[in-house]
């Protein structure tokens, strides 16, 4: 986090990876937005706000007329002109978090809410703005449930949205596939689906999906990335930190153990005039 903060303050592009060749170096816009979500988790919504403001302004500057936000910029700051459903959904949630940080600091940024509304409209009503220059990403489960997880799709429509492709992605007694056309369930996606189900008001299925995942836990407490169920193979041979993080986030959402438990299961926009939460938006 310190690396990203310093890069933002010094106007440096945050690389998506540090293993790429120079020609592949780019900064993904959703990486900046994930940072803002993390601040809410860490309860660091007070103090110096320059880096929060610079990060969000950098992202919002890449918003197109129709509301979508470019997925990345290259090392020279030139935009890569296309948009991702999953990435833009993450940005949508981060704009909510950034707004709340700004209100908590008594430095409202109404333009961030305007950008959020435009982005939400694009995600809900303008599918032609996404995956314009590459093959559709709709085979990825994240494109299916992220609009619910991040509040793009309102709670009243969320259950119907998830049900529409449930059988494509969910394997009984195992979890959620990473992609619809591969026999591979992954723990992290299953955790995120758990939280999306909670956001949709489907607590029973959220508990059920989460209950499948502990068969992939090792004795040291870590979790495998996923399971290839045709070959009966734990794959890849990795126990990544993001999988552990997803397990903890889903557990918190289910148990409401911490103050951040509802971050991904509800939408709360602080009112600048009253400092009280507004409903879903």
Folded structure, characterized:
The protein is 46% helix and 9% strand. The protein is mainly alpha-helical and 281 residues long. The strands form 4 sheets. Strands 1-2-3 form a 3-stranded antiparallel beta sheet. A 3-stranded antiparallel beta sheet has the order 6-7-8. A hairpin with a 3-residue loop joins strand 4 (170-171) and strand 5. The chain is globular. The model is unreliable at 21-25 and 275-281 (pLDDT under 50).
Span of the ends, CA to CA: 29 Å
| SSE-based structural type | mainly alpha
Instruction: Report the sheet with the most strands, covering strand number, pairing sense and barrel closure.
Output: 3 strands, antiparallel
Number of helices: 11
- Total count of strands: 10
Strand order of the largest sheet: 1-2-3
Radius of gyration: 19 Å
What descriptive keywords fit this protein?
single chain, 281 residues, mainly alpha, 3-stranded antiparallel sheet, 11 helices, 10 strands, globular
In short:
Helices cover 46% and strands 9% of the residues. The protein contains 11 helices and 10 strands. The strands form 4 sheets. It has a 3-stranded antiparallel sheet. A 3-stranded antiparallel sheet has the order 6-7-8.
């Amino acid at each position: 986090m310190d690396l990203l903060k310093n890069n933002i303050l010094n106007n440096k592009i945050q690389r998506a990876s540090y293993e790429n060749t120079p020609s592949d170096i780019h900064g993904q816009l959703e990486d900046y937005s994930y940072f803002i979500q993390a601040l809410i988790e860490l309860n660091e919504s007070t103090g110096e706000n320059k880096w929060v403001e610079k990060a969000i302004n950098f992202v919002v500057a890449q918003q197109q007329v129709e509301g979508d936000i470019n997925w990345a910029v290259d090392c020279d700051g030139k935009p890569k002109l296309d948009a991702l459903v999953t990435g833009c959904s993450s940005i949508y949630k981060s704009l909510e978090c950034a707004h709340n940080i700004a209100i908590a600091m008594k430095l409202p940024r109404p333009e961030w809410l305007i950008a959020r509304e435009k982005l939400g409209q694009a995600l809900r009503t303008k599918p032609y703005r996404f995956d314009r220059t590459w093959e559709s990403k709709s085979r990825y489960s994240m494109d299916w449930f992220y609009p619910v997880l991040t509040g793009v799709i309102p709670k009243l429509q969320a259950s119907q949205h998830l049900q529409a492709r449930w059988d494509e992605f969910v394997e009984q007694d195992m979890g959620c596939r990473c992609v619809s056309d591969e026999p591979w369930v992954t723990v992290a996606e299953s955790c995120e689906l758990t939280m999306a189900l909670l956001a949709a008001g489907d607590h029973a299925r959220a508990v059920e999906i989460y209950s499948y995942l502990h068969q992939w836990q090792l004795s040291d407490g870590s979790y495998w990335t996923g399971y290839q169920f045709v070959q009966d193979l734990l794959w890849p041979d990795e126990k990544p930190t993001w999988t552990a993080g997803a397990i903890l986030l889903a557990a918190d959402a289910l148990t409401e153990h911490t103050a951040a438990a509802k971050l991904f299961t509800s939408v709360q926009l602080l009112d600048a005039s009253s400092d009280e939460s507004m409903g879903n938006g």
